Amino acid sequence: MASGDTSLSICSDALLMLGASPISSFTEGTDEANICNSLYPDIKIKTLASYPWSFSFKKVQLARLITTPATEYKYEYALPADMIGTPRAVFISSTAGAVPQREYKLSGGKLLTDYETVYVDYQFAVEEYEMPHYFVQNMKYQLAWHLAMPITDQIEKTDYWRTVAQGTPGENGRGGYMRQAMNIDGQGQPTNAIQDFTLIDVRY
Length: 204
Known about the structure:
2 domains, 4-stranded antiparallel β-sheet, elongated, alpha+beta, 6 helices, disordered C terminus
């Protein structure tokens, strides 16, 4: 993991990439500080949500609420406050080999279901000091891209840093350093092999 990284240090490095002065506080009153304070939270969430980064997942048991749904389900559960997007998987057991479930509905920050126990896998807003080096670097490039226009007022710099961050428009956000960060992140993940496939078995 990266050591000592903060939202402030990440923003300051992105500003340096643009030829601007670093900031010492988001409330120091400079244009750079005000712009970073306004844009950084959304850019962080957008960058985290852009890919299922291995370090950005949690597995937790949801707390059942005392209130009950007014619809077809029996129970409702509070979704985690730090969740990005929606749950990636829902389970009714924490044991190894548990199968993801599908009989639920999301509504108003709650999960509605008939399951008496619910566990979820979800992506969360990772603190900067828990982000690995490759993702911190990715964040700096993403920030340089999004800060370029309000800080420098130069479309050429915006286009340049967008290409550095995620490649050309034709790469759909999967080029540039984004591709490298994704590859690094995937190195620690096992390759999923197809063990059984009925259509192949029939041929033999």
